[in-house]
Amino acid sequence: MTAHKKKTTLSRRIFLARGGTALVPLFLGTGCSDNVMGPDESDSTEPTTPEPTPTPPEDRVDVIVVGAGLSGLVSAYELVRAGHDVRVLEASNTIGGRAQTLREPFDDGLIAETGPARIPPSHDLTLGYIDHFGIETSPFYTQEGEYLVVNDQGVRQRQSPGVFLSGGRDAWLKIPAGIDALPMAFAEALGDRVQTGLPVTKVVRDENGVAATYGPAAKELRGSKLICTVPLPVIGKIEFDPVLSASKQAAFEATSYQDVTRVYVQYAQRIWEDDGLNGWGLTFAEGYSEIWHPTWNQEGPRGILMSYMFGELARRIAATSPSAIVPGFIGRFNALFPGTREVAEHGTHFAWEHQPWIGAAFANYNPPFSEHPELASPEGPIHFAGEHASGHRGWMQGALESGLRAAREIDGSVTEERSRATVVISRRQMVRRIAGIPNMPGWLVP
Questions:
Q1: Does the pLDDT at position 21 exceed 50?
Q2: pTM above 0.70, yes or no
Q3: pLDDT tens for residues 371-418?
């Protein structure tokens, strides 16, 4: 596992924000024995009796976290700060769950997102942890050029930023270094407590707590508690013994997920800007999809156009022969932005339904979480988290909320007030970032 290196020292603001709570140092290395001098080689005439070989200790922690998405990472992070021994087991070889940034096959350091990318200014936990880790943000949408809207009849319309971004989207932010900077910051703080490539296959509850069988060698890890953050499309890969309650399984079955496919094409030049367009827009032809220009404020002449598709259109594109997807979208983008075919270089696509340890993009709002609170209710020592178990489905805010809620269920010192105080953001800094925005959320008002 690799992570971007960041400063881990605490600022005075963050230290004071923790108030009277105990500061738990995050010394989470592999650990070393205090016996660094070697065996005692003093002269002794007495024969020595070999020490009996000790029985290997049971592999045990306080809390097992299944899944290294944002909900699992934040719950582990706060529980460690509260003094618990925690281990995170991630099935894939990637940290962050759906918070993934694409860097390949793009050139010149260009990047684009496969999952969450936009951060509304009302999402205080998301922005708070970003600020807590010292991660920079920038505007998500551009105020330059015109946006393109194409109706289902193919009629083109240009819209000014003021019209297209009405409703507060002009204040949305992004992480210019890549959205994966946030999960990587959690993972760096947790150190080798986060282990990847180790799918959990079985969870057993008994009078001593919970045991998780994981990895290709079917090792067992015991804990007093376990937090399951596995997305529901793939939770069936885990055998629960005893089985989860009927109400829990019914809530799983009632929760549907959205399919999302994204297609990216890199261009040698951003020639759409010569026509006064900024590369962003919406199209309702062949189904609703969004057109993003994620590189609008990235360096260099090259640019990336991205098609963000949902539902049936997403499934249809995902089922297309992989070799035909990018060439097909070079043609689609050329119809939207004439002349781009001549400067198209290469591209790629990403379908969430094809990700073996995730299975879909995000939980649908209908039926809402409020109708199935069993999604979040504990079952003995097993607790549940994930954006599907929150009121902010499809957002990083929901993942963070649910992870903190699961941590609070295990340790009452991880209160919502403490968490929000810990991630308190500099209002002066945020107000400066979104100066002139009329719909500033109340929590940012000085």
A1: no
A2: yes
A3: 999 999 999 999 999 999 999 999 999 999 999 999 999 998 886 555
CA-to-CA distance for 293 and 281, rounded, in angstroms?
9
Quick one: how far is CA 404 from the chain centroid?
14
Distance, CA of 293 to CA of 307 (rounded, Å): 9
Longest dimension (CA), the chain: 98
- Choose among 255, 227, 272, 282: nearest CA to 362: 255
Write out the DSSP string of 300-318. SS-EEEEEEEEHHHHHHHH
Torsional sign, CA 269, 142, 429, 417: negative
Confidence label for 429 from pLDDT (cuts 50, 70 and 90): low
Burial class (CB in 10 A: 0-12, 13-18, 19+), 443: middle
The arithmetic mean of pLDDT across residues 121-138, rounded, is 91
- Indicate left, alpha or beta for 215 from its phi (over 0: left) and psi (-120 to 50: alpha): left
* pLDDT digits 0-9 by tens, 152-202: 999 999 999 999 999 889 999 999 999 999 999 999 999 999 999 999 999
Burial 20-35 (b: 16+ CB within 10 A, else e): eeeeeeeebeeeeeee
Query: Rounded to an integer, what distance in angstroms lies between the CA atom of residue 242 and that of residue 226?
Result: 14
> Could you give the C-alpha distances from 62 to 91, 215, 383, in angstroms and in order?
20, 19, 13
Residue 65 and residue 404 in contact, taking contact as beta carbons nearer than 8 Å: no
Name 188's Cβ contacts closer than 8 Å, sequence gap at least 6: 3, 4, 5, 6, 8
**DSSP one-letter code for 132:** H
Q: Which residue has the tokens 């998405």?
A: 69
**Nearest Cα to 132, choosing from 185, 90, 211?**
185
Q: Kindly state the average pLDDT of the residues 66-73.
A: 98
Distance CA 48, CA 50 (A): 6
| DSSP one-letter string for 365-419 | SSS-GGG-GGGT--BTTEEE-SGGGSSSTTSHHHHHHHHHHHHHHH-TTS-HHHH
Tell me, what's the pLDDT at 413? 84
What span, in angstroms and rounded, lies between the C-alpha atoms of 232 and 236?
8
